[in-house]
TrEMBL record:
The chain crosses the membrane at residues 17-39, 51-73, 82-106, 112-133, 140-166, 172-193, 214-243, 249-267, 279-296, 302-319, 340-363, 369-388. GO terms for cellular component: plasma membrane. GO terms for molecular function: transmembrane transporter activity. SUPFAM superfamilies: MFS general substrate transporter. Residues 16-393 form the Major facilitator superfamily (MFS) profile domain. It comes from Nonomuraea zeae. It is a multi-pass membrane protein. It is found in: Cell membrane. Keywords: Cell membrane, Membrane, Transmembrane, Transmembrane helix. Residues 408-418 have a biased composition (Pro residues). This is MFS transporter.
Length: 418
């Protein structure tokens, strides 16, 4: 260990985690703000609404697919170098987005931004967990992931406001400026932590053959399908209560975002106290229950707003504890890879929720039907989080779930095909 490196739990982790939170805020704002700017982008680039919407899709796909690859290949880098590189790629991608006047180049820039976002977030979570130490890991992860929920409450509305007052390009430049600021602060304040000195590429990708890691990923995927089915089609699901008023829809988004931030931070403390597995089971059961409640209240706006608040709390109590669980199954050299895989599973769930919802709406024309289907996905995720470790006698999984402490048990390998 060099004089600039830190021992887990002995560094001033809150201040450094706060900087990482600002980075995830920039990433989240970049992902959300484009949605509010699509109409302006469409007119400027002279493309269809569907083509403009691909700017959102390619960001998500690049994030989901390239994140684990980049995490694996940058495993030997110091966390400071990885974080600065990731946030710099995000800034560069946004700079190209704001400067380009050709649709193809703008589309490519979203791939660049998505790659940087994926690289940054995975490393930020792993770094915060390392800095805080084992006993405070849940709170540290929650603090960093809170940046994403804050971007929903503050970043996306602010970016949309900037876009309306000046131009969509200025909103994108705003995200790029925040990213550059974060890169400078990280370079100045974060020590050159190395989580995986000397690890080979084969060692870093070893968790891909660990069944416990794969089970966490399945739970994340199913949970996020359940979470984003009603969220993505909020305007259709609650059309009777919204009554076509954009202000009501904006208020529901705000309520969801504020509640999500509170839920995320609360889940971190609960994870440290009761264990990540219990929190995941409770949160996913909560998502299923709220979806059922929404069926009964979707006609009355005030009741819908209350349901959205509950939904925000339980929905954003899933990812942080899931990151806690998956880190506990990995060696230090694989921490960034597994957190990247878990985040990618969440993004894939978001994408599948959109696709499943579109199919259901095209076949049945009923947005209400999305709610029981979402409840079923969330309930199945809760069942798997509870049942899989028990069904296989996975003592390590029980240790992580009940105490929040990493296990000393060896990985549970998938059977060889040879």
């Amino acid at each position: 260990m060099t004089k600039n490196e830190t021992v887990p739990g002995e560094s001033p982790w809150r201040g450094r985690a706060a900087v990482l939170t600002l980075g995830t805020f920039a990433v989240g704002t970049d992902g959300f703000v484009i949605v509010g700017l699509l109409s302006q982008i469409q007119k400027t680039l002279q493309v269809s609404t569907a083509a403009a919407g691909q700017l959102v899709s390619v960001f998500a796909i690049a994030y989901a697919l390239l994140g684990p690859v980049l995490a694996a290949f940058t495993g030997r880098w110091s966390r400071r170098r990885v974080l600065v590189t990731g946030i710099a790629l995000l800034a560069a991608g946004n700079a190209v987005t704001a400067s380009a006047h050709v649709y193809g180049l703008v589309l490519a820039s979203r791939v660049l931004a998505g790659s940087g976002a994926a690289l940054f977030v995975a490393s930020a979570v792993a770094t915060a967990a390392h800095l805080a130490g084992e006993q405070r890991r849940g709170r540290a992860i929650a603090m960093v992931t809170a940046g994403a929920t804050l971007s929903l409450v503050l970043g996306a509305p602010l970016g949309t406001l900037i876009g309306g007052a000046w131009s969509w390009q200025m909103a994108i430049w705003f995200v790029a400026a925040v990213a550059v600021g974060v890169a400078v602060v990280i370079a100045a304040l974060l020590p050159p932590i190395r989580l995986d000195q000397g690890a080979t590429l084969r060692q870093r990708i070893a968790p891909l053959t660990d069944r416990r890691v794969l089970r966490v990923l399945v739970v994340t995927l199913l949970a996020f399908i359940g979470i984003f089915l009603p969220f993505t089609y909020m305007s259709a699901v609650f059309a009777p209560a919204i009554g076509g008023e954009q202000a009501r829809l904006a208020l529901l988004l705000l309520v969801f975002g504020v509640a999500a931030t509170a839920g995320n931070l609360t889940a971190g403390s609960l994870t440290d106290r009761y264990g990540s597995r219990r929190v995941v089971i409770g949160a996913t059961m909560g998502v299923a229950a709220v979806c059922v409640v929404m069926l009964a209240v979707q006609q009355v706006f005030i009741l819908v707003a209350i349901a959205q608040a509950l939904s925000g709390v339980v929905s954003y109590s899933v990812m942080g504890p899931q990151q806690h669980r998956i880190i506990a199954y990995a060696a230090p050299e694989s921490a960034s890879l597994v957190t990247s895989l878990n985040t990618s599973a969440g993004y894939l769930g978001n994408f599948l929720a959109s696709s499943i919802g579109a199919v259901i709406l095209s076949i049945t024309g009923s947005a209400t039907l999305l709610l029981p289907i979402a409840a079923a996905f969330a309930a199945f995720a809760a069942f798997l989080a509870w049942w899989l470790p028990r069904s296989t006698g996975e003592r390590g999984g029980e240790a992580v779930g009940e105490t929040g402490k990493p296990t000393a048990t060896p990985p549970e390998r998938a059977p060889s095909t040879r």
